[in-house]
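*** Residues and shapes ***
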Amino acid sequence: MAETYEELPKWNGQDQKQSKIINYNRPVIKPGMVVGFCNPLLDMTVVGNSEILKKYDLKSNDAIIAGEKQAEIYKELEKDPNIQYTAGGSGQNSLRVVQWILGEPNSATFFGAVGNDRYSEILKREANRDGLDVKYQYHSDKPTGTCAVIITNNGKYRSLCANLSASKSYTDDHLELPENKKIIQNAKFYLVTGFFLVSNLSASEKIARIAYERNRPLLFNMSAPYIYESYLDSVMSIFPYINIIVGSAEEAKSFALANNWETTDIETIALKLSTFNVRNYGHRLVILTQAENPVIVATDNHVRTFEVPKIPEKDIVDTNGAGDAFVGAFIAKYVLGYPLKMCIHSGIEAGSYIIKQHGMTRGDAFNV
């Protein structure tokens, strides 16, 4: 059945005029339409208390990288009969949302590095449960990356403790395996995160060039402000190939500061990002989120804003996955051929839904 929507311009490297009503026939969904690259983590979630936080020197509503004091926390959490496992890491989260929307198994394929251990078996099982195809690179000398998630204060607080380990160890040769190479060379859409970029620049550069040579969209998730403070040269090496940027206002400001743009105005930064150092067509699509404030969208010297619905504070459970959900929903609608306006609204809707859930879980009411 064709679905009817009001058409608004969608970025495809060319100017488009607004037309009245266009019928959209859902395209054929094929395996590996969307491919993504990031650092995978097995999220291990439990309902905890002040005692376990104190034992491992954790704060109730915080996020840290695990040190020696936290080394044994993952084994302890496994003993909890109510432990919840989810396939985490920013890019993997986004592709899970892509799968929720596209529906057809293996529509999206995720690439990342894990250990050759029991945790990677659980990680794969949980990703496959969402229909996501995973092509992990296995490392026998490092354990799978994990993230302890301890919920307190009736679900309002979440203490995150991540052990990145093998997740940072992806190497280029995995791209060249015949099965992987075939998927990558036939994808319709590419996702690379800032987290993956700083872990493996060479692989990111290869993916960016493949997307450019095949004239397929490359979406870059800005990931975190520190990346532009410490790894700007790495970012700039793939920047000309990026067609779509999605980030937060804080990440965009960090990028602007690192490039000496001397402005903190988000709309101005979005416009500059849309034409800064870009090969394809002289402009790119830039999408910047601002928490509960309007989403800013810039391309081809135009800026538009999209309102975000107000959510009562009592309904907000966890904001950590909102950005990942936004990216996933946007990508899914984009590859389905929806107009830009619908893609943005779907991203907002998915992000608004996820912050009402415990972690990146679909629940029964997801309908984006």
About this structure: The radius of gyration is 20 Å. Residues 1-23 have pLDDT under 50 and may be disordered.
